[in-house]
């Protein structure tokens, strides 16, 4: 039985933690630590959840690749028929390099530059998710100048509370994202008048790590109200894009299953007479989050001050590992709780530890007050680290970013090698000698 939160593809076989059929200790011995390891099967199963729920409908699933942009991940999804949600030209270049289809790619983001617009138009993206009137004007200009028509969808801010962490909540009036709901009709009319644009859809994205269906239904209702109001003014909207945001289980969260969420949304769409429209989703975390782990080695155990063994009430035991906030930012940035478990279970009493990294910041922690039976040299795995782990990693403290391995069954491939120190300063320039 798998008692670990997250994916059934990350489980102990005997006392040894595996991703599918590959033992993490072995992968770490071969590739070193910190090491991200992903289950390809878990990713494809998560995608299949969306595909099943949308079968028989005109639809497009656009993987929000900011969650994990490794080319092998993109390749896996592209081969399974998936499109992409991008927020920069760097992301578009990754899509192209991985064999993804620009015609199945939506371009999101509040701050697209003219240059990015131009390149995306040349590549032929499916549409631009436009977030402001000023952006509409810029896009129309750019498209005109190169003799193209830009397909646009307006990202509407529906002003609903996604009930998630404030840093990852995006659908409230107070957030910088999207066109305000009460300005949307006027903005559509403006878009229709601009020469370089073709209005094709409507979209929203209300936040991330959402664990309830209701905020989605509220947002959908507001979107459908707008579709009706816009079409009453003679415009037509071909698609409805409901964004991403579906949460995953890090500890005991119980997000709706993909089928349930999508099923309830489709039901509401049908009830309101919009069933003929193309439906888009932009899932990120729910496709890759539970599929990945971050493996790290225990460098030192540092008992609480004054305690000879075990925890003392006046201090903390520290488990210092070789992965830090630069490798996995979520705990430091959002106080996110992510499970930390040993790669090899020991039949010993657990102690309470703060699991911390080597970076020179007090905020450099991966988990607080965790019960672990570990010794120096053991390895631990942070679970559900497949989304917003490697993609948010930095080189702070001149630390090279981790290597990444993709597993399928008993096979493992290195899909990104560890960064070398010399690569980190390869773009620096010394001043001329004087
Ligand atoms: N579409 C848009 C326009 C987005 O901004 C995002 C995520 C997504 C789709 C995908 O959302 P997802 O399905 O992954 O929830 N770094 C944070 C999460 C930031 C999400 C940003 N936008 C974290 O580690 O929790």
What would a concise description of this structure say?
By secondary structure, the protein is an alpha/beta fold.
What do you see in this structure?
The protein is of the alpha/beta class and 434 residues long. It folds into 2 domains: 2-39 and 290-424, Lyase, Ornithine Decarboxylase, Chain A, domain 1; 108-283, TIM Barrel. The protein is built from 12 helices and 21 strands. It has helices spanning 24-31, 40-54, 71-79, 89-97, 114-123, 133-145, 184-193, 214-232, 258-271, 285-288, 330-334, 421-424; strands spanning 10-13, 16-19, 22-23, 35-39, 59-64, 83-86, 105-107, 127-130, 150-157, 179-180, 197-203, 239-241, 278-281, 292-302, 318-321, 340-342, 351-356, 365-372, 379-382, 403-408, 411-416. Strands 4, 14, 15, 16, 17, 18, 19, 20 and 21 form a 9-stranded mixed β-sheet that branches. An 8-stranded parallel barrel has the order 5-6-7-8-9-11-12-13, surrounded by 5 helices. The N and C termini lie far apart (68 Å). It binds ligand LLP. Ligand LLP binds at residues 64, 67, 85, 108, 168, 205, 208-209, 243-246, 282-286, 330, 334, 387-388.
């Amino acid at each position: 039985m798998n008692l670990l939160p997250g994916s059934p593809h990350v489980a102990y076989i005997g006392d040894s933690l595996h991703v599918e059929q590959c033992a993490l200790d072995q992968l770490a011995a071969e590739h070193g630590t910190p090491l991200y390891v992903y289950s390809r099967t878990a990713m494809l199963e998560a995608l299949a959840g969306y595909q099943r729920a949308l079968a028989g409908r005109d639809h497009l699933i656009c993987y929000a690749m900011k969650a994990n942009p490794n080319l092998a991940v993109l390749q896996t999804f592209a081969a399974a028929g998936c499109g992409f949600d991008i927020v920069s030209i760097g992301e578009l270049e990754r899509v192209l390099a991985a064999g993804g289809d620009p015609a199945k790619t939506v371009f999101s983001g509040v701050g697209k530059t003219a240059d990015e617009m131009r390149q995306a138009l040349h590549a032929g993206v499916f549409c631009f998710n436009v977030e402001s009137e000023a952006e509409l004007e810029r896009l129309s200009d750019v498209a005109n100048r190169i003799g193209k028509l830009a397909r646009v969808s307006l990202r509407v801010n529906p002003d609903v509370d996604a009930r998630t962490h404030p840093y990852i909540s995006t659908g409230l009036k107070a957030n910088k994202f999207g066109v305000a709901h009460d300005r949307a009709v006027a903005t559509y009319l403006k878009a229709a008048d601009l020469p370089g644009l073709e209005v094709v859809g409507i979209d929203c994205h209300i936040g991330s790590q959402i664990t309830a269906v209701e905020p989605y239904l509220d947002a959908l209702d507001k979107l459908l109200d707008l579709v009706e109001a816009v079409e009453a003014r003679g415009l037509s909207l071909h698609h409805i894009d409901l964004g991403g945001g579906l949460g995953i289980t890090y500890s005991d969260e119980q997000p709706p299953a993909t089928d349930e969420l999508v099923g309830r949304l489709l039901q509401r769409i049908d009830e309101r007479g919009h069933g003929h429209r193309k439906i888009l989703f932009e899932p990120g975390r729910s496709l890759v989050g539970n599929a990945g782990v971050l493996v790290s080695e225990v460098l030192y155990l540092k008992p609480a001050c004054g305690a000879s063994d075990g925890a003392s009430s006046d201090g903390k035991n520290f488990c210092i590992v070789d992965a830090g906030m630069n490798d996995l930012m979520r705990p430091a940035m959002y106080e996110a709780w992510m499970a930390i478990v040993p790669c090899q279970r020991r039949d010993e009493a657990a102690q309470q530890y703060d699991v911390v990294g080597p970076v020179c910041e007090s905020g450099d922690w991966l988990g607080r007050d965790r019960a672990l039976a570990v010794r120096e040299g053991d390895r631990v795995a942070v679970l559900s680290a497949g989304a917003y782990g490697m993609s948010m990693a930095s080189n702070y403290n001149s630390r090279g970013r981790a290597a990444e391995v993709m597993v399928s069954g008993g096979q493992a491939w290195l899909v990104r090698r560890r960064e070398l120190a010399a690569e980190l300063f390869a773009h620096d320039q010394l001043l001329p000698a004087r």
